[in-house]
Amino acid sequence: MRTSIKALLASTLIAAGLAATPAMAQEEAAASDITITGNVAAVTDYRFRGLSLSGGDFAIQGSIGVSHSSGFYVGAWASSLEDTPVYGSTELDVYGGWTGEVTPGLTFDGGLLYYVYPNGNVGKANVYEPYASLSAAVGPATVKVGAAYAWKQDSLGGDDNIYVYTDLSAAIPETPISVSAHLGYADGAQSPKFLTGASTDGGFDYNVGASYNLTSKLSVGVSYVGVDGRSIDSFSNDAVVGTIKLSF
């Protein structure tokens, strides 16, 4: 019995399609394991641990991150700065780490962050800083405690720095409003008391704020920021900081 060329061709195409289906499904599944997120923002003042790095002026910021379903992630965040010979006018933070639930309801996040100043005095500004935190839901709120440690580096004047903090955040039910609070303590080269010439002791920074989701991607926020040490205008004085952010 003869098999027509058309029938043979049809059966070949069907078989190829059936063979390709599992491969395509595997590729789609692999692609879904990767998540890419990012945002761009404008802030009225770039405050890092309570201190202004934009001279009390506006700053443009943005980030992009790539995460895997296993919990591993890499990313980068950037901001404009007050232009100085050491730091230049741009900060670029490159990071990588792992996050995941270590016990039911308790999430760990840890990795290494590298602060880079591409148009500054590279080599006397860049800083490495490992970090780790634990977070958990407590009622309607999320509570986080964390620490970051920068070992002795030339960019820190040959000293080291430890930073410990706690964050509290919560979304107000049935509203587009979220509230947050932060308290941190730095001891070492980045102590606000040391950087403002008050003393060589460690010092606290804090902020409280709220944000409003205009859409699922666009939000505005405001926060009140304070820090220990001498009050220096456009650097360590208390400030109200506004933010507008677009996520994608």
Quick rundown:
InterPro entries: CHP02001. The protein has 248 residues and is mainly beta.
Write the layout of secondary structure elements.
Elements: H1 5-32, E1 34-43, E2 47-48, E3 51-52, E4 59-68, E5 72-84, E6 88-103, E7 106-116, E8 127-138, E9 141-153, E10 159-171, E11 177-188, H2 192-195, E12 203-213, E13 218-227, E14 239-247
Antiparallel strand pairs: 1-4, 1-14, 2-3, 4-5, 5-6, 6-7, 7-8, 8-9, 9-10, 10-11, 11-12, 12-13, 13-14
Structural commentary:
By secondary structure, this protein is mainly beta. The chain folds into two domains: 1-32; 34-247, monomeric porin ompg (Porin), CATH 2.40.160.40. The chain is 13% helix and 58% strand. It contains two helices and 14 strands, in the order αβββββββββββαβββ. The strands form two sheets. The protein has a twelve-stranded antiparallel barrel with strand order 1-4-5-6-7-8-9-10-11-12-13-14. Strands 2-3 form a two-stranded antiparallel sheet. The longest helix is centred in the N-terminal third of the chain and has 28 residues, at 5-32. The termini are far apart.
